[in-house]
Write a structure and sequence with these properties.
Elements lengths: L1 H9 L1 H21 L4 E9 L28 H10 L2 H10 L2 H10 L1 H10 L7 H11 E5 L6 E7 L2 H40 L3 H23 L5 E9 L8 H38 L3 H7 L1
Helix pairs in contact: 1-10, 2-10, 3-8, 4-7, 8-9
Amino acid sequence: MDQLLRGIWHHRIAVLTAAALLFGLGAGIVLQLPRYYAAQAVIAPAETTGIATSSLLSPTPMLGGGLLDQRQSGHFAVYLDVLRAPEAAAMLARETGLLAHLTALRQAGAMGWLRRLLGLRLEADADDAQSWLERNLAATPGIGTVTVTLTLTHREREAALDMLQRLHALAEAKVKADLVELTRRRIGFIEQRLAAERDLYVRNALYDQLGQQQRSLLVAAADQAVAARLVSAPMVGLRPAIPNRPLLLLLLAVAAPLLALFGAACWVLLAPSAAGRRLHQAELPFLYRAGAD
């Protein structure tokens, strides 16, 4: 150990130089990373019962679905899936400047020059919008609660907030439209049964079901939130939040010296071994070496 420390101290200038170079290279990469604004909204399942066969999810205990199964269900799960659906990507491509933004990114930098050189496509399409949505939209469940935090990242602050609001409105409208359509079909089926049914007891049961479905239709048409209730409205910070450059630079300031010390230790441990083997071979008797030849 003492020999290792003396060897590292002997190469202290090289170690400091290597640490400074590693930190400078990493800091240059970190400072060149594009900054993103993060728009966030906190949502929770709407509290409704008896609306449909797949009823709206109501708040449940943390282990209500089992220790290992914490998946969302009901219309709230449909709402979360619609947020990343191709329909959502098509809406963003149609109503926002997402395709123009992605096209500008594809044409910029060294990759844009390479695409031009190879004759590759430069204009963004619906598949690019879908891939962008899947990468930049995150839904994080709360710890021990039924809330979910939606996070959408974008290089422009206003665009991030606008897209998150549009996605929430689209998913809520999709679930509500499906729910209203389902309830109307049930009402139509019950009315057809009533028109053909002559048994008094069956008709009374059908009248009860018709009243329940009509009530459900009124609730679904009147309520603004049938799938997800906004706990915290979509908001975005005044400054870019991703990536966290100060934290990355701090981690780099710790990792660069450690990596330089590790390289110096490997050099000290390996270099004397090779020199010792050469010295040992040089001290062997001449007759021994001749016999070995």
